[in-house]
Inverse folding.
């Protein structure tokens, strides 16, 4: 069994088609078929069920793919560690990010990292929290920007900052003009309010619902969106209320801005983390990215509090 055979098999499983897999691998289709047949003969099992236009994994094939992914990931980690030992200056870090949080933080982090490490390439993948956790656990990213709690038990993490949660209400809402509310709105006061929230699969949606349940009520969700800016615009238009991370609440917008109010003690917050798979070797480039992210967050906090 050869590493290239593992790579070929993984690509066939990904593309579900020999022609597309061969194109992606830049080899001739007969050569690809020959290598797969050779591997199946060596193993004594069929890895794929051939159909007219597609191929599907057999039971043995699915098991083979799981192990092959782990082996190829281990090889990639070994190469990275050897690169670090040889003190190569160039490198590559695949970073996963929640679209909403990343759009407000990464424009500060990435330029700072590029200035400090111009020869290290950053590849950015954006997805929902749940998908990012799965990607990170499977080696699809080196690091991912997430918030606690994490659902995937195989992930470790580095805390990079604590973010306070604010309440967003329409500008003409009764709470917006209440002097008492300026000192902190109790979550229990919101149980009869219509909520506008993010769609399922996004970490902040779960946090919003959990905070409401912790205050003794189920939020009355009237609208959902994939975009926090849409959520805030709907709030500003008088369609309901929502909870917003403070970094996002402070972002500049030109129109349809809701009123932001603090929540009462104990003030809820979320912990932002850089997550990675437990036991996975972190390259020097990945460690440098974490350090840059932490430093940038500290600078942002200092600017907000000054």
């Amino acid at each position: 069994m050869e590493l290239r055979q593992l790579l070929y098999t993984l690509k066939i499983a990904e593309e579900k088609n020999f022609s597309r897999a061969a194109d992606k691998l830049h080899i001739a289709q007969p050569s690809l078929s020959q290598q797969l047949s050779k591997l199946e003969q060596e193993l004594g099992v069929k890895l794929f069920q051939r159909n007219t236009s597609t191929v599907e994994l057999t039971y043995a094939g699915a098991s083979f793919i799981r192990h092959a992914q782990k082996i190829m990931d281990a090889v990639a980690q070994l190469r990275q560690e050897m690169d670090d030992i040889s003190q190569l200056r160039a490198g590559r870090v695949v970073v996963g990010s929640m679209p909403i949080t990343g759009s407000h933080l990464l424009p500060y982090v990435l330029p700072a990292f590029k200035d400090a490490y111009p020869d290290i390439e950053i590849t950015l993948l954006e997805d929902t929290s749940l998908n990012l956790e799965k990607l990170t656990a499977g080696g699809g990213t080196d690091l991912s920007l997430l918030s606690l709690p994490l659902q995937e038990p195989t992930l470790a993490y580095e805390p990079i900052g604590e973010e306070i949660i604010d309440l967003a209400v329409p500008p003409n809402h009764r709470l917006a003009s209440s002097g008492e509310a300026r000192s902190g709105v109790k979550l229990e006061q919101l149980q009869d309010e219509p909520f506008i929230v993010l769609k399922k699969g996004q970490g902040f949606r779960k946090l919003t619902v959990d905070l409401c349940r912790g205050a003794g009520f189920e939020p009355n969700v009237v609208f959902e969106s994939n975009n926090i800016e849409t959520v805030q615009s709907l709030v500003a238009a008088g369609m309901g209320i929502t909870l917003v991370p403070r970094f996002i609440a402070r972002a500049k917008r030109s129109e349809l801005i809701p009123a932001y109010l603090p929540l009462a003690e104990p003030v809820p917050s979320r912990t932002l983390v850089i997550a990675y798979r437990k036991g996975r070797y972190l390259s020097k480039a990945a460690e440098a990215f974490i350090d840059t992210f932490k430093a940038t967050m500290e600078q942002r906090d200092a600017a907000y509090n000054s």
